[in-house]
Amino acid sequence: MPAIDIGPLAFRSNAAAKAYYRAILHAYPVGAVIPEPHASHLLWLLDRHPEAADKRGAGVARFRVDKPPKGKHPCFWIDRVDGSATDFSFGWAIDGKGPSRLMEMRQAMREAINGDAMAFRRRFFEEHADTDGRVPCALTGVPVSPSECHVDHAPPHTFVALATAFLAERRISPDGSHVTAPADNQFVPRLVDAALAADWQAYHRARAKLRVVERDAHLRQGRGGRER
């Protein structure tokens, strides 16, 4: 991969730059304000973000590490001089671009069925958990707790396959008009049209076969070729 310069910092590749900024992220506890020189390194990186002007807003007062309201993993946050705040993706900044229109659409579609997935997990554990509160992973058979699992779509009706078929059948070409515009603290876009969201939810409920899988096994499956 080509070399990348971020301010005066030089990296041999995007991957090397991401490793560097990921190390900064994990060097500080949740809630910590990021001091110099790393604060300057983040300010240089912000200039590359595809939404740099919106992220900067009235001006950057400081950077910190925090978690999204519904997220498990920490990320960079910007506190602005006017008291507002927003999240900040170092990966998007290093790549110089955000997700594609298709990826945004899929993110919004996944968000629309997230409630169903969580309800399925709750019911599955209520009905199948052993005396330790664990259920067997559908991939490995290893017992897992609610905090150790993901809800997955069993092939051949994977999430991507269902989303692709739905968009094709409805003749929808993702162009950004079907999802909410970027905004502070909006970690994933959402479908704008409530009728479209309800149509997709009904389509998904009629076809998806959900299952509980161990989190690490699910991630290994993704690295092995599952389209995410």
TrEMBL record:
It holds the Pfam family DUF3223. It comes from the Bacteria. InterPro entries: DCL-like. This is DCL family protein. It comes from Azospirillum himalayense.
